[in-house]
Write a structure and sequence with these properties.
The relative contact order is 0.22. About 80% of the residues lie in helices and about 0% in strands. It is built from twelve helices and no strands. Helix 2 (about 30-50) packs antiparallel against helix 8 (about 170-190) and helix 5 packs antiparallel against helix 6. The longest helix is centred in the C-terminal third of the chain and has 35 residues, at about 255-290.
Length: about 290
């Protein structure tokens, strides 16, 4: 299990280094170009190792893949737009409200209001962010909230995609679809940037750090790691994002920002732990009844 935990932490580290690296180059290659380079290079790298099976698939497989692809690509685009306007740590904290909202809605729907404390803690984090002086912009928060909504949709589509497409086939297709969809606006508005060879080198690095390595490490970790522990570890993303943004970009957060981040992380851990505990209890009750 220790190896799986290290793989999960490696995935988080890789994503956040990739985000900080991408943001550092926004003045030269903007957020839309970097998002396109990320999905393009990530898709091409995955295509080296993965061969999707397309023939004979029912219409349902293509519909869920379409929803999954849209949510994944839109999440990448809106997140890069957000971090171009606000600190990465705060953008990830706001974006984390997406999976947090999905988990909270499932708990409240099936288990009533006793776990409302975790939702309240997350809401407190959001309020603290709202009081943070000078760190946030309206457009940055709006893009981060859109990224959160896309992440929530991604979570909803993922189980359906997992039953129809094996391994990273869906991720590969989603990245290649995103590459094609974003190609037109990138060529129209920013074609002059793509003539520089170093830009493609940066795109390769970002695609490797932000897509290929994280997905590979997560898939390997989930083979042996309990999903609840995995989810709790993923709750560390806002803190890791702030740490690497500070180390690479020099982005400093205020005390209020830090408290807001702690609230959201604690709410995520609490909801995940509570859901796992209740699922175990329900399983035991069903076994006793049987």
């Amino acid at each position: 299990m220790r190896k799986a935990i290290l793989m999960t932490l490696g995935s988080i580290t890789s994503v956040q280094i990739g985000s900080a690296f991408a943001k550092d180059l926004f003045p030269v290659a903007g957020p839309l170009e970097m998002a396109w380079l990320r999905v393009t290079m990530g898709g091409l790298l995955m295509a080296i190792f993965v061969r999707p099976h397309f023939r004979g698939r029912p219409r349902h497989d293509w519909l869920v893949l379409a929803g999954y692809s849209i949510s994944l690509v839109a999440m990448n685009v809106t997140f890069y737009q957000a971090i171009s306007r606000i600190p990465i740590g705060l953008a990830v904290t706001i974006e984390f409200l997406g999976p947090l909202g999905v988990a909270a809605s499932r708990i409240l729907m099936h288990h009533g209001l006793r776990d409302l404390v975790w939702v309240a803690l997350a809401a407190l984090g959001v309020l603290l962010l709202g009081w943070s002086p000078g760190s946030l912009t309206v457009s940055g928060v709006a893009f981060a909230l859109m990224a959160a909504a896309c992440w929530a949709a991604y979570i909803v589509f993922t189980p359906h995609v997992g039953r129809s497409w094996s391994g990273v086939q869906a991720v590969l297709v989603a990245n290649l679809v995103g590459s094609v969809v974003l190609l037109v606006p990138v060529l129209v508005m920013f074609h002059h940037v793509l003539v520089h060879p170093w830009v493609w080198g940066v795109g390769l690095a970002v695609g490797l750090l932000s897509s290929v390595l994280p997905y590979g490490l997560e898939l390997a970790a989930l083979r042996t790691l309990d999903q609840r522990i995995f989810s709790i570890l993923m709750s560390l993303e806002p803190a890791m994002a702030a740490l690497f943004a500070l180390a690479i970009l020099g982005e400093r957060l205020s005390l209020t920002d830090g408290l807001a981040m702690i609230c959201v992380i604690a709410a995520s851990v609490g909801i995940t732990w509570s859901a796992g505990r209740r699922q175990l209890r329900d399983t035991q009750e069903q076994a006793d009844e049987g």
